[in-house]
Design goal:
three-stranded antiparallel β-sheet, N-terminal domain of TfIIb, large ribosomal subunit rRNA binding, 3 strands, Ribosomal_zn-bd, elongated, Ribosomal_eL37/eL43, alpha+beta, 70 residues
């Protein structure tokens, strides 16, 4: 069996391959580890849509829904 990209469970064979690939791409981008722009800690994550914060230094920033561009 060839190694490929990590796929997500939960969608099964529904919705078509194009939608599943888009969902996988967005979900992996959303869940990746990020460093805080202030303190450099890896505890930087999304609180709500467009709101990103660091749990260590309480730094908050507004960004896009699935990623933050600093």
């Amino acid at each position: 069996m060839a190694k490929g990209k990590k796929s997500l469970k939960g969608l099964g064979a529904r919705y078509g391959i194009k939608i599943r690939k888009q969902y996988t791409k967005i979900h992996l981008q959303l869940k990746e580890k990020r460093a805080c722009p202030e303190c450099g800690s890896k505890t930087f994550g999304r609180d709500a849509v467009g709101i990103w914060s660091c749990k260590k230094c309480s730094f908050k920033i507004a960004g896009t829904a699935y990623d933050v561009k600093v």
